[in-house]
# Entry
Amino acid sequence: MIFFVGAGPGDPDLITIKGRKLLEEADVVIYAGSLVSKRQLDYVREDAEVYNSATMNLDEVMEVFLKAEKEKKTTVRLHTGDPGIYGAIAEQMRELDKHDIYYEVVPGVSSFSAANAELKKEMTLPGVTQTIIITRMAGRTPVPEGQSLAELSKHHATMAIFLSISMIEDVCKELLEGYTEETPIAVVYRATWADQKIVTGTISDIAEKVRFENIGKQAMILVGDFLDTDFELSKLYDKHFETEYRKAVPKKDKDE
# Structure
């Protein structure tokens, strides 16, 4: 049996309880060595087979899967963050489907939510934005028509930009198609790792700040007014708002 497990962003304690348990019990572990903390391997059995997928291609990963299945072993495919976001698991699952091999996906904490947690922000502020766009800059991997940063920026929503920090100048240029130069932006390098860095600014000055910090990879870009603006109170804890669990407190006058 095969489990695709999200390891979380960096801090090894951010893996889920289910993910950690599967890792401890696995006969075979294939982990994304270029991104997953090697401290996760401390929980792997000494007699388990361990492979670093950073040095492997899809065919080689499949060879390990098929061999383990033939030997009736349990395999954990350990991906960084959440495996369903830029994890390239679809192609692996498609190959497993061809062989009628059963698998499960165990979600993980994505780097965009970890980065936001380090910033201590709420990405969906009432009256500011209720939408989060998860995307990337076109590079060696193109983006479909209509999904460029320039087009997406016109929504003025909260945006989490993956895999694009090396092109920060181009990122900012495209963002200006929708956002203003003064729109706040944050770059979180290696969120939750010991060497984490946080750089904040606006679209007009963030590129210079990022270059000064020598950040060229493994960084999340978060964009939007949620980073620095006033906002409306939510209805969730509004004493005048009734829910199925709580009675509303009557208003005494229109200004209350």
